Amino acid sequence: MKRLIVEVCVCPECVMMGAMDIIEAIESLKKLKTQLRLNTQVQVITKSCIGEPKHGDDSPVVVINGDRLVCANSQTVMEKIISLKAKDVKH
């Protein structure tokens, strides 16, 4: 089973810009993984700050298996997770 590590910045700027919504979306994806045939373990790690402090214009920041997403939202994070899953299926 493939493993995805999703790090979500939870500094005040990222939380104000939607980091908690991203975490909720990932948690709901974990609950739906059987229906989506997602043979991937998704681990969510919260970090007090990812990257440079005061990264307001880049908030929220999410890192998925080392790939940094800035100005992330639930949709872009879900798309990235699904695309990584699709790459895994092709191999």
Automatic annotation (TrEMBL):
This is (2Fe-2S) ferredoxin domain-containing protein. It comes from Zongyangia hominis.
